[in-house]
Amino acid sequence: MTTDLTPALAWQKLREGNERFVAGSSNHPNQDASRRSSLVNQQHPFAVIFGCSDSRLAAEIIFDLGLGDAFVVRTAGQVIDDAVLGSLEYSVSLLDVPLIVVLGHDSCGAVTAAKQTVDTGEMPKGFLRDLVERITPSVLAARRNGFEDVNDMVVEHVQQVAERLVDSSRVISESVDKGEVAVIGVTYRLAEGRAELVSGFGAL
Predict the structure, then answer these.
(1) Check: CATH 3.40.1050.10 for 7-201?
(2) Please, what is the average pLDDT of the chain?
(3) Which residues make up the binding site for Zn(2+) (predicted)?
């Protein structure tokens, strides 16, 4: 049995959970022993959340979710690589997840590092360089649009990542075209805990 939620209903469920979290009235659903037992041989998450690895951005907490509710993929600055694409295609193809959420947040360290590289021309060492290189196009695009604040650059980056997912994966794009999956970009405000929609592909 797969989830019977449409992309729109999946997003509504996430929004409702986030509203509870913001209000300080989280239900902490699906976190008991019976839920754990029911998931031993199967899982049917209703959303996949591709978010930043930041310790303040725990998807299950900010959307008030429990075990088996969300398939979560995280990298610093929600940067895409082949493993990320494979993980997201797995969630769509094998788990029939109807909603992919690209989740960024204000004061993002990875986006800040990319902005600093653009400002100074000094590239960081090691694999951090690869991370910064993948975020730099978003920083430059934000500047072309007149934005200098790092939080505006985060929004631009979330929008670009969501678009890149659809452009890069035929599995995802075909599912979007069929109306089976929506891909949305969401930004999270650390201070108030609110998740806000900033872009979308597919019917919501």
Answers:
(1) yes
(2) 95
(3) 52, 54, 105, 108
